[in-house]
Design goal:
InterPro entries: cDENN_dom (IPR001194), DENN_Domain_GEFs (IPR051696), Tripartite_DENN (IPR037516), uDENN_dom (IPR005113). One of its GO terms (molecular function) is guanyl-nucleotide exchange factor activity. By secondary structure, the chain is α+β, with helices and mostly antiparallel strands. It is 21% helix and 30% strand. The protein has one domain: Longin module (Beta-Lactamase), CATH 3.30.450. The chain is globular.
Length: 155
């Protein structure tokens, strides 16, 4: 088709909304402002922070780290014969082209710490792509309970 897709949330922490900080609606649209598209080459990871303002004029700093994963673009062609579909076997040894889809890690906070956000998302990305045997739930739990000292304040 057009190559445009629709983003979806695969996993989130916390799984249920906190009363004082609900999950931002439409965050999947925010992650890819130019649309969810497949590309023929793997793009380098990107990072940006934007500020969303809710209905109560509360600011939410949204850090977005996007990387690209290979997806299988080979789908057998089907033909209809006598009202029944038949799948066509590939007749040539040509390998199917590989496409890459964006995948985004998003951190939403009421605090403005872009460099801390970049480091946290970079750590999660590294654990994910290296296939380390560390539970993402534990990593995120540890990140959520870290105390970040205020500049100029006592530790």
């Amino acid at each position: 088709g057009s190559g445009d897709g629709q983003g979806q949330i695969l996993q989130r922490f916390p799984e249920k909304d906190w009363e004082d900080n609900p999950f931002p609606q439409g965050i999947e649209l925010f992650c890819q402002p130019s649309g969810w598209q497949l590309f023929p080459k793997k793009n380098p990871p990107t990072f940006f922070v934007a500020v969303l303002t809710d209905i109560n004029s509360e600011r939410h700093y949204c850090a977005c780290f996007t990387f690209w994963e290979a997806v299988d673009s080979s789908q057998p062609q089907s033909h209809t014969r006598n009202g029944e579909e038949e799948e066509e076997e590939p007749s040539s040894p040509v390998q199917p082209s590989q496409l890459f889809a964006p995948k985004s890690l998003v951190l939403v906070s009421r605090l403005d710490y872009a460099e801390v956000f970049r480091n946290c998302l970079g750590l999660i990305y590294t654990i994910y792509v290296d296939g380390l045997s560390v539970s993402l739930e534990n990593v995120i739990g540890n990140l959520l309970t870290c105390t970040i000292p205020i500049t100029g304040a006592a530790q």
